[in-house]
Amino acid sequence: MHIEDIAAMLGRVPMLAKLDPTRIKLLAFTGQLQRFSPGEYLMREGDSSDCTFLILVGGVDAVVDSAKGEILLTRAGPNDMVGEMGVLMNVPRTAGVRANSDVQALRITAKMFLRLVSESPEVALDVMRTLAERVLLNSRQVERLHRELDQAAAQQVRYGMDTASDSS
User: Fold this and answer.
1) Which of 31, 59, 62, 68 could form a disulfide with 106 if both were Cys (CB 3.0 to 4.6 A apart)?
2) What are the domain boundaries of the chain?
3) Is 69 left (phi over 0), alpha (psi -120 to 50) or beta?
4) pLDDT tens digits for range 2-51
5) Topology of domain 3-167, per CATH?
């Protein structure tokens, strides 16, 4: 894929659409196009947050490991960015990101991403909106999980009462 093709794809990304075409070309030139097969990790939980990935083709799953196994946090597809939270917070990856189909993604170094955000208020605002949406979705997921836990606990109590009354 040529720089012009990558720049054209980047120009269709809502987060980048307001950028000057020269900046988009710079991003296309400095980014590294990478391909991933289904099941292959773009990044693993705990890795250094040295870059972000802009998904151009295909889809990915963000996952975390737990005592009960892997938990799917979210899915991302074309025009979505992954890995920006770790870069912005300067912390290791908080989740793994794995291809769920054939993926083409542009790897953007942390330095370039931070430069883009700091020099482009429009991009910074879109990044903040995206992160705020994720926080809202995660909050709703936590609320749902709390309700499920409360229901499971209530069922256990009822089951315990039913068992106790059966034995009397």
Assistant:
1) 31
2) 3-167
3) left
4) 788 888 888 887 777 778 888 888 888 899 999 999 999 999 999 999 99
5) Jelly Rolls (2.60.120)
